[in-house]
Amino acid sequence: MRIEAFNKVDNYSIQNNIIINIKDLINDKNLEPGDKLPSERMLSEKFEVTRSSVREAIQKLEFYGLLKSIPQSGTFVANIGVIAMNGMISDILSLEDPDFKSLVETRILLELKAVKLASLRRTEQDIKDIKSALDAHNKKLMLGEDAVQEDLLFHLAIAKASGNSTMNTFMLIITPEIITKFEKYHVCNDNDANISVREEHTDIYNAIVDQDPSKAKEAMKKHFKTLYQYCYNI
Predict the structure, then answer these.
(1) Which residues of 91-119 are buried (b: 16+ CB within 10 A; e: fewer)?
(2) Is 0.85 surpassed by the pTM of this model?
(3) Is 107 in contact with 178 (CB distance < 8 Å)?
(4) What does the pLDDT look like over 155-185, one tens digit per residue?
C-alpha cells in the first residue's frame, strides 16, 4: 500500500513538472494557437522523462482544452490566449486527486440529472441495455458475489440513455476511481443493503420505462440516501 501510494504521488509530481515545462516552452517560444509542439520523443528527451509520461501530461492538457492532438499530425496549441492558458494551467496544477466523498457527491449530482433525462429520452435499445445491466447486477448479488462493477454499469447505462454525451463522458471518467474506492473500502457488502439496492434499482428502471422524470429522480434520491446510510460510514 505504501509503495502504491508513493508511486502515485511520484507519478503525479512528474506529470505536473512536465506540464510546467510545456507551459514554459509555449511561453518561451511564443507559440500561438495552432502552432505545433515538438514530438513526444523530442519532449521526452528535452525534459528527461519517459514518452509515456509526456503522453499522459499532453492528454491531461488536451482534456482541459489547452492542447489538441491530431493523429498523424502532432499536438497543437489550442485556440486560447496565453494569459488564459497560464491561469488555467496554474489551476490544473493545484487540483488534488478527488477523495472518496468528493467522487460520490459528483456522481450524485450527475446521476440525479441523468436519470431525469434518461426517462425522457430513452430509446428501446437503452431500455434493453439498462435491463441487461440490472439483471447482471441482481444475479451477482443473489449468488453472494461482489457486484460493484455491475452496479456501476447499471448507472453508466442510465447516463448513456440520458442522451447527453458530456454527462456520459464525466461518468466514464470518474467510474474507474469509484470502483477502486468501493473495493478498497468494501462498500456495500451488507446483505440488508444489497436487498434495498435491488429494490431501488428496479424502481429506477421502472420509472425510466414509464418515462416519469419526477418518479425517476425521487427513486434515485432514495437510492443514494440508502447507500449513504449503509455504505458510506468510512
Answers:
(1) ebeeeeeeebeebbebbbebbebbbbbbb
(2) no
(3) yes
(4) 999 999 999 999 988 888 887 777 776 665 5
- Say which CATH topology domain 100-231 has: Four Helix Bundle (Hemerythrin (Met), subunit A) (1.20.120)
How confident is the model over 186-217, as pLDDT tens digits?
555 556 567 788 899 999 999 999 999 999 99
| Whether the Cβ atoms of residue 100 and residue 182 lie closer than 8 Å to each other | no
Residue 36 DSSP class: B
Q: Which fold has domain 2-94?
A: Arc Repressor Mutant, subunit A (1.10.10)
Domain boundaries along the sequence of the chain: 2-94, 100-231
